[in-house]
Amino acid sequence: MLPVPILLITDQPTLNTLLERVLMGLGYPAKLILCTDHLAEAKQLLQHHLPNLILIDLSIDGIATISFIQQLKKIHPDANVMVALAQHQTALLLETIQVGAQGYIFYEHTEAEILNNIKSILRGGAPIHHVLAQYILSHQIESKPTISITQLNQPLYLSAIEYEILNLVSTGLNLQQVAEQTSTSLYKIEGTIKSTYRKIACLKN
Predict the structure, then answer these.
(1) Whether residue 61 sits in one domain with residue 35
(2) Which of 19, 39, 63, 95 is exposed most, by the fewest CB atoms within 10 A?
(3) Where among 122, 150, 173 does a domain terminate?
(4) Are residues 151 and 168 located together in one domain of the fold?
(5) Does residue 200 lie within any of the structural domains?
(6) Is the dihedral of CA 119, 125, 129, 131 positive or negative?
(7) H helices of 76-170, where?
C-alpha cells in the first residue's frame, strides 16, 4: 500500500473513529489519516497533501458536498472519492456518482462491510448493492441494454457484461457471488462497476 494520505470529511465522531480504525487495520498509519469537519479546511488539506482517497460524509451539507466533489474531480481527476450516507438515499447516491464519486459506505454498514467497500476502491474497482442496481435498471428502454437516467435525460449505453452484472446484483447477489456465477475475477467485476460509474459521470459532464 502506498504511503499517501487519506482525507476523511465528517462531523460525526463515531463514524470518524470507525473509519480510522478500519483504515489503520488496512495498514495506514494514523499520521496519514487527515480529518476535518469543514469543507473549507478540506480544500486546504487537498492542496497541501493530495490524498489518494477522500471519504466525504454527505450529512455535512448535501448540496455543498455535491459541488465540492464536482470541483475536486476537475482539479484532481485521479483522486478516489467515496461518500457516506444513509442506505435509503439512493437518488442522492446516484447524484454523487454523476459528479465523480466512485464508491460509498452506508451509516448502517457493519465494520466488515465498510472494510470491503474501501478495499474495492483501493483495488481499483467500485462497490454496488442491489438497490442501486435496481435503481439504474428501472429506467431500461424496451429490451435493449440501454438505461435512461431520468435526472440526465440521456441514455446510458451499457456493455453486455455491465448489463449482466447489474442484473445479477439487482437480484441480491454480492459481487463475489456474481464473479463465481459469471466465472469472472472479482477484480474484473469491480472494475466493470467502476466503468459503469464513469459512464454515468460522463453523461453529467
Answers:
(1) yes
(2) 63
(3) 122
(4) yes
(5) yes
(6) positive
(7) 90-98, 111-122, 130-137, 160-170
- Residue 148, pLDDT > 60, answer no
User: How many domains is the chain built from?
Assistant: 2
Residues constituting the chain: 205
Which cell numbers hold the place of 105? 459506505
Residues β-bridged to residue 7: 34, 54
**pLDDT tens digit sequence for 62-73:** 678 899 999 998
- Residue 1 falls within a domain, yes or no? no
Distance CA 130, CA 93 (A): 13
Q: Whose CA is closest to 126, among 146, 96, 151, 156?
A: 96
pTM of the full predicted structure? 0.87
Place of cell 464519486: 101
Residue 205's identity, in one-letter code, is N
pLDDT of 144 above 50: no
Q: What does the block give as the cell for 60?
A: 455535512
Query: Where a domain ends, among 68, 101, 122?
Result: 122
